[in-house]
Amino acid sequence: MASSSIRYFLALGLTIACAVPSAAVAEDNMLRVYMDHARVLKLDRPVSKVIIGNAKVADATVADAQTIVLTGRSFGTTNLVLLDAQGNAIIDERILVSIDEGNTVRVFKATSRSVLSCTPNCEEHSAQGTGG
Q: What is the C-alpha separation between 115 and 111, in angstroms, rounded?
């Protein structure tokens, strides 16, 4: 009985160990954009319809038939679906909107937290002014 328990926990450990890298890879496959920044997406064929899962997180604007401008609006994840004239998906990707960590400072005071963007002067992010 003891050896079957050991095998069970070893199998469980291997399953968890194998699942962690796949989650990291899945996050790496996201389109990433910083909050209040734009990213240009060049397409290989014309887009007919643009769908954003949550317009509060990101916005997509058609610059021309083969160029989309993706803008991060607030922190979080959503998805972007681009369809051609026949309704076929050109892109169906998850989007991660985050803060530019290279130019930020976090200030913790008792139970509150402030996040400041310092480019070049430090200013507080309105979306991050409280809690969390």
A: 14
Contact at 8 Å (CB) between 100 and 117?
yes
- More reliable by pLDDT, 1 or 118: 118
Strands 31-34 and 89-98: parallel
Q: How is domain 30-98 classified at the architecture level of CATH?
A: Sandwich (2.60)
Q: What is the C-alpha to C-alpha distance for residues 41 and 70, in angstroms, rounded to an integer?
A: 7
Name the one residue in this structure whose structure tokens are 């430090």: 122
Is the dihedral angle over the CA atoms 124, 126, 130, 131 positive or is it negative? negative
CA distance 116 to 41: 28
Find out whether 85 and 59 touch, Cβ atoms under 8 Å.
no
pLDDT digits (tens, 9 = 90+) for 13-57: 555 544 444 333 345 688 999 888 999 999 999 999 999 999 999
Domain locations in the chain as residue ranges: 30-98, 100-132
Q: Tell whether the torsion through CA atoms of 21, 22, 23 and 26 is positive or negative.
A: positive
Secondary structure of residue 68 in the 3-state scheme: strand
